[in-house]
Amino acid sequence: MPEPTQITVPPHLLPSDGRFGCGPSKVRDAQVRALVEAGTSVLGTSHRQAPVKSLVRRIRSGLTDLFDAPEGYEVVLGNGGSSAFWDVATLCLVRERAQHAAFGEFGAKFATATTRAPFLEPSQVVTAPPGSVALPELADGVDVYAWPHNETSTGAMAPVRRVPGSREQGALTLVDATSGAGALPVDLAETDVYYFAPQKVFGSDGGLWVAILSPDAVARLEEIESGDRWVPEFLSLQAALTNSRLDQTLNTPSVSTLVTFAEQVDWLNEQGGLAWSSARSATSARTLYAWAESREWATPFVTRPEDRSTVVGTVDLDESIDATQVIAALRANGILDVFPYRKLGRNQLRIGMFPAIEPTDVELLTQSIDFVVDALA
């Protein structure tokens, strides 16, 4: 058997761009040019002055258009990434008890945050094994229902629709959309908080969170933060909302992140918006899953086709094929970051299929994998 790094994939089988990571994800050349062009007019300047505030305004306005946000919904930006937003939501949106649907690493992490909060009742958690999907269920005493739109760790995606009866109950619906926002269809009217970070579909860097809030979510945060609960200012959703209405963030943001984020939002809207981006990713997904199903040594990890993500594809390899060797050979040929989620511990490939990735490159990736597997055999 040859050393994986000694395998040379023929040039005609190689994708035009080898970045298939599930976050950070591929950054388009136009985003890099926008960053260069920003130069001294934006980089290294105050985030509370007009040039940077205009970037925040572009992002907020562009996301409102991209998601066709219902009347009264507001786009809020904050520092810290989606991991920080779990704490923000725990402090500022859960009144007494949350229910979570957890079917992977990230849904479980939010459940852990609310469960450990000493000022809340123990959370209810509906679970399903990795590679499948769990959905929340109506229950007494629950005032927040939460689940991921797309589970980045497993490549499973869940529908976004309110739990029947939850609105009459006065409960909020929170959806973690970090790896799906901007490339999965969604009706924001079915949510009260649709939150994400920009390092996936939006091809930017981490360290920033975005939440699109309904009027009911705004009323809830105002109710909680005006009460007796102690909320650190950095984690205050009210502070983030107040600053976002001024087209700024509470703390100093990464301005380069704002530049690349704004550029990607504009690009998605110019191409045709959410309908275009979701169709483009779905095309890549059809290619990937059809390829996996046609190979004796590859299997889509997510069993039910309707649960298979169209932005993060996971493919199990037969035990006779060492995925780490396949990944090493691909990396030696410029095909990057197709490794599985570390804690999942499977003999698997995980492939980003975000809109910035050309569908033809996904097809070429499958041909490159075929070549490497044959060479290793």
Automatic annotation (TrEMBL):
Key words, A-Z: Amino-acid biosynthesis, Aminotransferase, Cytoplasm, Pyridoxal phosphate, Pyridoxine biosynthesis, Serine biosynthesis, Transferase
Which family would the database say this protein is a member of?
Answer: Belongs to the class-V pyridoxal-phosphate-dependent aminotransferase family. SerC subfamily.
PANTHER family linked: ALANINE--GLYOXYLATE AMINOTRANSFERASE, AMINOTRANSFERASE CLASS V
Cofactor dependence is on: pyridoxal 5'-phosphate
Q: Which InterPro entries match?
A: Aminotrans_V_dom (IPR000192), Pser_aminoTfrase (IPR022278), Pser_aminoTfrase_mycobac (IPR006272), PyrdxlP-dep_Trfase (IPR015424), PyrdxlP-dep_Trfase_major (IPR015421), PyrdxlP-dep_Trfase_small (IPR015422)
Q: Does the keyword Transferase apply?
A: yes
Q: Which residues form the Aminotransferase class V domain?
A: 43-335
The primary gene name is: serC
Protein name, please? phosphoserine transaminase
Pathway given for this chain reads: Amino-acid biosynthesis; L-serine biosynthesis; L-serine from 3-phospho-D-glycerate: step 2/3
Q: What does the record give as the organism's lineage? A: Bacteria, Bacillati, Actinomycetota, Actinomycetes, Micrococcales
